[in-house]
Write a structure and sequence with these properties.
heterodimer; A: Lipocalin; eight-stranded antiparallel beta barrel; two-stranded antiparallel sheet; 18% helix; B: 371 residues; 2 helices; 17 strands; 8% helix
Amino acid sequence: MKQLITITTLLFLVFTISSFNSNYVAEEGDAIIGLWEPSSGKARVKISKIGNKYFGKIVWLREPIDPKTNKPKTDKNNPEESLRSVPLRGFRMLKDFVYSGDNEWTGGTIYDPESGSTYSSTINKDGDVLNIRGYVGIKALGRTDTWKRIQLKSKKK
Amino acid sequence: MSHFIKKSLILGLIAFPVFGMAQTDSTYQEEEEDYSMYDDVEDVGTIVTYCSPKIFDLSPNRFVSLGYDFTSGGDFTSSNEGTFAPDSSTTGNQTSGLSYHGLRLNANIPVISLSKFVWQLGGGINQSRMTIDDEKLGTNLGHTGLSEAISRNLTSINLNTTLFKPLNENSFLILQMLAEMNGNYDFKSKETTPDFANNKYSATLIYGKRPHDRLQWGVGLSRTYRAGELNYIPVVMYNYTSENRKWGTEILFPAKAHYRRKFNPRNILLAGYELEGSSYRLYDTQLNTQGLELRRSEIRARLDYQRQLVGFLWVGIQAGVIVNYNFNVDELASRDNKDFYRGFFGDQSLVFSNKMSPMPYINLTLNLVSL
């Protein structure tokens, strides 16, 4: 009986500590959630969390209408023909990022609608600025863009 | 007690996945939202906006390129050694047949690639394995000596760097620097081992504007060996993509100029020319003169088809005609082995005045690219 109580206590402690730790990590990771604007200023991206991963979708475009069609811009450069009619607004361009500690989110991908290319990606947060690196294969073969945090005017931080 | 253990195990099995492995479905669809709410925002973070180094639909930037270059044969006509002033007639010509082929391996890696600054470092090796047609080979000793020196193959090993500094949202500076070790060296003996003192250095500085996502232009100055000899020339950059994004231009005049036709983002055709060349040290020649520099330059008028194979792996096929611009030889021994600037008006004598007939060529490359 004594042994059983010891094992149960240990299990309880392990679960409590891991739960506390994962909650803490999740809270830190959630610092990326919100609205962001890439350096070009041509789009706004809303990052949110689904499960334990982070995703970013385009919620605003500086030029939302395609001058050629006079209709909302679609993902016309997508390599998959069936996806070229998908509207760009609402498109999930950041996918599958996991918080790995030290203000870094890794393991995700970033989609460049201007070329239709998907790059491996990591995100590094520095205050209210994100450094998002898209790369081919290895991190060295890539480019980093800087995004700034924005917020809705009615919603003060 | 066994009931208690059973309960603990069941609880543990249920609890573990909750604590340890939250599942994610990346195809998860969010509910529709009113996007107009994102029209009115204010900054929390602060960044400075800089212009991008690219415009829409430029041909892909090559991180690594492995290729092979083939030419068909052409006539190589050379004057006698040491008797020619510039632009003099090439009496006593000797002619042989010449063709070449060779490996081209180049890499260009971004060391720093940020919105506010881009620094790329590259290197490469480009070979021309020369074949002289014995049947046509002349009997003049000078011509034979030159042919023999060239037939030991021409190799160019280079290191280069490119700095892109955006000044603001629509203007930028580009600085390119290149160091080359060119010659008919092969490292097999002391006489055929290249000397670093003979390296060639080039640089280009461009100030440019990027008024919008489809236009980038600039003007600058270049110290270059593309015409074979050392030259200082103005350069003009003009990269443009049409409004319908089906065609455009990629121009860095006079080095290269191409019309670009995009069939789709992974399938493009370029038509135009590139001026390719440099100065090659001729080591271990049997000629009377020493410190010889082969001023090699050719205009490659071509069609260049590039398409995606898979992912970021692309294939490139070039086909066109090589028109010789310069294949003359200078002698530097009497100038303390220092290079000199002849320009368009200099009167320094050549030791060989050569001509090559136009020849068709094909170039195949496999490239790891970034779009």
